[in-house]
Amino acid sequence: MAVQIAKHLFTVDEYYRIAEIGLLGPEPRVELIEGEIIDMSPMGLPHASCVARLNRMFWRGLGDRVVLWPQLPLRLNLRSEPEPDLAILAPHQDAYKSGHPVALDVFLVIEVSDSTLDYDRYVKGPLYAGANIPDYWIANLADGQVEVHRDPTPDGYQTIQVMRPGDVIRPLAFPDLEVAVADILG
Amino acid sequence: MAVETASQAHEAPMERWRFNVDEYYQMGEVGILGPEARVELIDGELIRMPPIRSHHNGSVIDLDELLRELLGRRVTISIQGPLILGPYSAPQPDILVLRRRDDNYRSANPTAADVLLVIEVSDSTLTYDRETKGLLYAQAGLPDYWIANLADGQVEVHRDPTPDGYKSIQIMGRGDVIRPLAFPDLVIAVSDILG
């Protein structure tokens, strides 16, 4: 009878204590995903400039109707605190001073993916779907497309649409906004 | 629903954060790894050790008694104790046969140079013991690594460590005897190991 070898999984509280006692270095670039501390790879230029474009587009399109939350933590469950490339949040009375946003605050999450596509699809996708985040986009730079994940269930997103340059995407929460795939990919 | 694309062939694997041995001990000291955490540090990752079942435990006790009878105080025998292998690994093998040290390793945990023989008793973790532990022990240069494979009734003797793994793996069955590399005068019956 074979036993699955299991990694030790951390809670968000343990993750914070690990950082507090300095074990993740002075400026940790990590996120906690289902109990595992994941080292975020250094960000290449195409990735960084795509994040900047996304921020500009959503700021122009939605302004103060939302809070833009770029590469900042979301508290999704007991063992997960990812930092997606961009989260579009509902405005909050105290501007998220008293606690990190949770899934209910999130309209849309976007990951920019150049070297992390499998991870963004098959680990982050189920994580965001399990948290019931309604709208999850992956800007797939390598293949020049944006993947729109919707209809979250505990087993993952039920709908995945692949959008290409020439297509436009309307965020679920803001159907009046037209986002051109070509503008996302740059 | 899966989306398949050509770019996946060039996928960079996500890197898990690796802790070093000092950090592993610090997590124990501050209570992040509490008394209930049965983990070992393998290549920077904390791996849970499965609960020890009675057959496994009995084999460890048998081996301990057998080795003490045969070797007495020529060596130190450590049961499921720590072994520090480089900056990122601190496994706890079932049996370590170590060079004797005056202070019984109070001042520092044993390292690769102290190890004469390492034995893992394997009932449910055979692949892990063969592949992950095998590579780890070979890369550390541990000269003699035995896996007491309870499920198949055999003992696997791994020798000639290289950075790619052990070059020599001998499968010994009941009726065979094994002579530890460090003590070629000693004859250990496989049937005594398997009980």
What's this model, at a glance?
The complex is a heterodimer of chains A (186) and B (195). Chain A has 186 residues and is of the alpha+beta class. Chain A is built from four helices and ten strands; from the N terminus they run αββαβββαβββββα.
What does this protein look like?
- The complex is a heterodimer of chains A (186) and B (195).
- Chain A is α+β, with helices and mostly antiparallel strands and 186 residues long.
- Chain A has helices at residues 12-20, 45-62, 117-130, 181-185, and strands at residues 30-33, 36-39, 67-69, 86-89, 106-113, 135-140, 145-153, 156-163, 168-169, 179-180.
- Chain A has a six-stranded mixed β-sheet with strand order 3-4-5-6-7-8. Chain A has a two-stranded antiparallel sheet with strand order 1-2.
- The mean pLDDT of chain A is 93.
- By secondary structure, chain B is of the alpha+beta class.
- Helix content of chain B is 24%, strand content 29%.
- In chain B, strands 4-5-6-7-8-9 form a six-stranded mixed β-sheet. A two-stranded antiparallel sheet of chain B has the order 2-3. Chain B has a two-stranded antiparallel sheet with strand order 10-11.
- Classes of the chains: A alpha+beta (186), B alpha+beta (195).
- The A-B interface holds A 1-3, 5-8, 10, 14, 17-18, 21, 23-24, 30, 36-39, 41, 115-119, 121, 123, 140, 142-143, 147, 156-160, 162 and B 1-3, 5-8, 10-12, 14-17, 19, 23, 26-27, 30, 32-33, 37, 39, 45-48, 50, 123-128, 132, 151.
